[in-house]
Amino acid sequence: MRTPYVVVVMGVAGTGKTTIGPLLAARLGVPYAEGDDFHPQANIAKMSAGTPLDDADRWPWLDAIGAWAHERTGLGGVVSCSALKRSYRDRLRTNAPGVVFVHLAGDRALIEDRMRQRQGHFMPTALLDSQFATLQPLQADEAGVEVEVSGTPEEITARAVAALDALDTPPAPAP
Fold first, then answer.
1. Distance CA 161, CA 158 (A)
2. What is the pLDDT of residues 34-78, one digit of tens each?
3. How many distinct helices (H) and strands (E) make up the chain?
4. How many whole angstroms separate alpha carbon 168 and alpha carbon 92?
5. Pairwise CA distance, residues 120 & 173, whole Å
6. Distance between CA 151 and CA 20 in Å, rounded?
7. CB atoms within 10 A of CB 78
8. For residue 115, how many C-alpha atoms fall within 13 Å in the half-sphere facing its CB?
């Protein structure tokens, strides 16, 4: 039996991380953690005001997510986190070397439309361009898969499960 994955559901704002994450966790039979809950209040206030975070803002947030992922090593889990830059994913892997990324990717117009439809979220659509400008897609040496976000949440989740099942490399064992 394969050791359960600790999955980071990543992508720009509006790709459905908060929707797909819990569905994926349920399909995998593991707990889910909402990455936004790891943000300090200062980060939320900054983003709510339409100001993008800088790396200094992100490091403590990434470390908190990485600590959660480390605690789930060998047990499995799913956490949402934009993880837009390679350096951010490297920071997560520092804490949890066996994490696997599911990059939710899609057409900018579709993502913007979804952002406009959601209510009560602190991330304004005005920051979408900065998200796409920052995005560095997964590289060949990173454990992970890219999943297209068109379709229903159930279809996207099914694609993510199938892509994870097709991965060649199982997650790293617990240290």
1. 5
2. 998 999 889 888 877 878 788 999 999 999 999 999 999 999 999
3. 7, 5
4. 21
5. 39
6. 12
7. 29
8. 20
pLDDT in tens, 152-161: 999 999 999 9
Count the neighbouring beta carbons within 10 Å of the beta carbon of residue 129: 13
Please state the pTM of the whole predicted model: 0.85
Residue environment code for 147-174, b if the CB has 16+ CB neighbours within 10 A, otherwise e? bebeeeeeebbbbbbebbeeeeeebbee
Give all strands of the β-sheet with 32-33 in edge-to-edge order. 32-33, 77-80, 6-10, 100-105, 144-148
- DSSP E strands: which ranges in the chain? 6-10, 32-33, 77-80, 100-105, 144-148
With 0-12 / 13-18 / 19 or more C-beta atoms within 10 angstroms meaning exposed / middle / buried, residue 47 is buried
